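Contributing new records

If you add data, match the layout below exactly. Sequence lines come first and carry their own label; structure lines follow with theirs. Keep one chain per record. Anything else will be rejected by the validation script.
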Amino acid sequence: MKYLLLILIGSGAYYFYANNYEVHPDFKALTYNELIAKVEAVEVKASEILLVSHKMAISGCKNEEWLNIRGVSSQQCMSKLNALKEACSDRIFPDMNKTYIGKGVASKLLDRYSLCTGV
């Protein structure tokens, strides 16, 4: 009985983590230019930079010209992005509440996410 309770608690914790940790692209997320303008004026949270990074990656997976050059389909690109987004966000943005200021820092983070996901 004790083991069943432990299994249920573990399963519940995994379910909560799997369903609440995922970063969904926010359609109200800033564009690249808006983010750069904002980060030059005020501090921006890592979570905002991640949203813009992910939004840009999704746009890249929908750009047919870029996909043809790379020789991949939109589905392959999105599959790769979905497979790597969690690992890349954990690696590049370990603290979502950390704030950044300055165009150079934001650009480097955007580039690192792009290189990590391959998009």
